[in-house]
Specification:
By secondary structure, the chain is an alpha+beta fold. Helices cover 33% and strands 23% of the residues. The chain has a six-stranded mixed β-sheet, sandwiched between helices. A six-stranded mixed β-sheet has the order 8-15-14-11-9-10. The protein is globular, with a radius of gyration of 22 Å.
Length: 451
């Protein structure tokens, strides 16, 4: 048995029937020209022939003394691949809507803790001939960015490459070993928080006087910030990256600013349809690079979480983009002027209130720290292929929580931006309508930007 890290243990302890803690992804493929009706069956046969499992795909939670759970890992010598890899077919007529309905059910179910914490579903039967793969892995094993990178390593830029690579056979990239000492972990954490002390005056000035820093609990209460149930609904769609780039070039804002403004407009439209739009603007938590422009070519990286004003209180899309761009610029400026360890500590403090949602009555009695998470994950820059099948869509699907009933995650995929939306089935009705709201918001911003 191997002891878990505190972070791994936290993800397992926090998981309940209402809060599955796995990250998922839905990949949509176009079979190669001339592929016969047996292509998916043959692909499945190729997949099941790979039985050399890397350690992360053999891990399952273990107990100490038969009772103490969530503190150790066991490794299965034998993995039941027929259980973990499943082949399914959609009912006729095989619409994308049917695929998303199946994915919604799969994404809302818990992983079996008596087995390694992952599943892969090969899904055929779409009327247009395409097929899909839905995968999910527990967050204690891997995060969303690492999961996407693992998927990309199974694919090829060569459409004539007929090799079939599967995630469970690929070794994880080498990473420098980190101390697992609890004393070291506590010391680093205390040091990071203590490191904020010299910058307290600067942070207070930025937040209160210059209004550059958005702080938690300034968000309004919305229909997303409630206790949630266990069932999920997912929605997914792709948009050409060039549409966002044209707006960015015309306005001088970044592509990510444009993405956030489009999401803000879509959320405004959705909430108006539900007669649930608050007077104050929604606030999103956005994972971002905290590196300043003059550090763009420097080594290392600095990634944290900032809070962004989405401008949902504004009707004009151009005004919304300005508010979003200024909000992101101001927040990132504050972080970029802090030493690395202080910036990361401040970022952690921004999202720490999510840990309080488990307290009885907390979600209902307080304002939310922020309204939802919007995350833009780096994806492949070139078209990718799997046994000659082109990756048409690559939709990341993340986690909904108490107080955070909707999540928007997107990834670039060659010339597209692929959006994956996850919502509590009970608390976020008609989630698929957000897709048309995103298109309407993008069109409105194109008109306002003159592109």
């Amino acid at each position: 048995m191997e002891l878990m890290s505190p972070t791994d243990s936290m993800f397992l302890i926090a998981e309940t029937r209402e809060h599955p803690f796995h990250v998922g992804g839905l990949a949509l493929y176009e079979p190669p020209a001339g592929a016969g009706g047996d292509f998916v069956r043959e692909l499945h046969e190729d997949m099941v022939s790979h039985t050399d499992f890397q350690p992360v795909f053999r891990k399952r939670p273990s107990t100490i003394l038969g009772a103490i759970a969530n503190v150790g890992w066991s490794y299965d010598d034998e993995v039941d691949l027929d259980y973990h890899l499943r082949r399914s077919a959609l009912p006729s007529p095989g619409r994308v809507r049917d695929l998303l309905e199946l994915t919604s059910r799969l994404h809302g179910s818990l992983l079996d803790r008596h087995r390694p914490l992952w599943e892969a579903h090969l899904i055929e039967g779409l009327a247009d001939g395409r097929f899909a793969v839905y995968t999910k892995m527990h967050h204690s094993l891997i995060d969303g960015v690492s999961a996407l990178k693992l998927l990309m390593r199974t694919l090829s830029e060569d459409p004539d490459d007929t090799a079939v690579r599967v995630p469970w056979t690929l070794p994880r990239r080498h990473r420098p070993r980190q101390s697992s000492s609890l004393a070291r972990t506590v010391a680093d954490t205390v040091g990071s928080v203590a490191g904020l002390a010299p910058s307290t005056v600067k942070l207070a000035r930025a937040a209160l006087l210059e209004q550059q820093l958005t702080l938690p609990f300034s968000a309004p209460k919305t229909m997303f910030n409630v206790k949630i149930g266990g069932a999920r609904r997912v929605a997914a769609q792709s948009w050409p990256l060039e549409r966002f780039q044209r707006i960015a070039r015309a306005t001088g804002f970044t592509v990510n600013d444009v993405v956030l403004a489009v999401c803000g407009g879509a959320l405004r439209g959705y909430l108006l349809d539900q007669d649930a739009l608050p007077e104050r603007s929604l606030i999103a938590m956005v994972p971002v690079s905290l590196r300043s422009e003059h550090e763009a070519d420097a080594g290392g990286n600095l990634v944290g979480s900032v809070l962004c004003n989405l401008g949902t209180d504004l009707e004009d899309p151009a005004d919304r983009l300005t508010v979003v761009g200024e909000s992101m610029r101001g927040n990132k400026k504050v972080f970029s002027e802090l030493p690395r360890i202080q910036a990361l500590a401040l970022s952690a403090m921004m999202i720490a209130p999510l840990g309080l949602t488990a307290l009885p009555g907390f979600v209902g009695a307080t304002s939310p720290p922020f309204n939802l998470v919007i995350s833009n994950v780096p994806g492949p820059r070139q078209p990718l292929y799997w046994k000659g099948a082109r990756l048409d869509g690559n939709y990341p699907l993340s986690i909904a929580l108490d107080g955070q009933a909707m999540n928007i995650t997107l990834a670039n995929n060659a010339d597209n931006l692929d959006f994956g939306l996850v919502g509590c089935r009970r608390s976020v009705p008609h989630l698929q309508r957000m897709l048309s709201q995103l298109e309407d918001s993008l069109k409105a911003l194109e008109v306002a930007s003159g592109v």
